[in-house]
Amino acid sequence: QVQLVESGGGLVQAGGSLRLSCVASGTDFSIPTMGWYRQAPGKRRELVATMSNLRAATYADSVKGRFTISRDNAKKTVTLRMNRLKPEDTGVYYCKAEATYSDSLVYDYWGQGTQVTVQG
């Protein structure tokens, strides 16, 4: 079992910045991919950014050039730096870890979510 604890988020004016962090805990697992998803009211959850353990990053088109994802594999953390925030970035941001164990199967774990509100 992997536990994900998120921190960061909050209320910011349009054009501002926020940083989200997520740390994974548990035993005997590796995490090929960690990342962030978000869900706005009335909308489906969508990918924001993910990063592999080799630090290959994927971004949603809507955040490219504004958001930066990073990982510390040793500390099992993933961080999302969000710059030039827009009101449409508002939503609940979830950390996700795709973890594997000795069985080599992939298991998805989610954090509890953290609210990001951007006022225009």
Can you walk through the features of this model?
It is a single chain. This protein is mostly beta strands and 120 residues long. It contains no helices and eleven strands. The protein has strands at 3-8, 10-13, 18-25, 30-39, 46-52, 57-59, 67-72, 77-82, 91-100, 106-110, 114-119. Strands 2, 4, 5, 6, 9, 10 and 11 form a seven-stranded mixed β-sheet that branches. Strands 1-3-8-7 form a four-stranded antiparallel β-sheet, with no helix packed on it. Strand 9 (91-100) and strand 10 form a beta hairpin. The radius of gyration is 14 Å and the shape is elongated. The N and C termini lie far apart (40 Å).
Largest sheet: 7 strands, mixed
State the end-to-end distance.
40 Å
Radius of gyration: 14 Å
Mean pLDDT score, rounded? 95
Low-confidence stretches: none
Report helical residue fraction. under 10%
Total helical elements: 0
Overall outline: elongated
Class per helix and strand makeup: mainly beta
Order of helices and strands: EEEEEEEEEEE
Give the tally of β-strands: 11
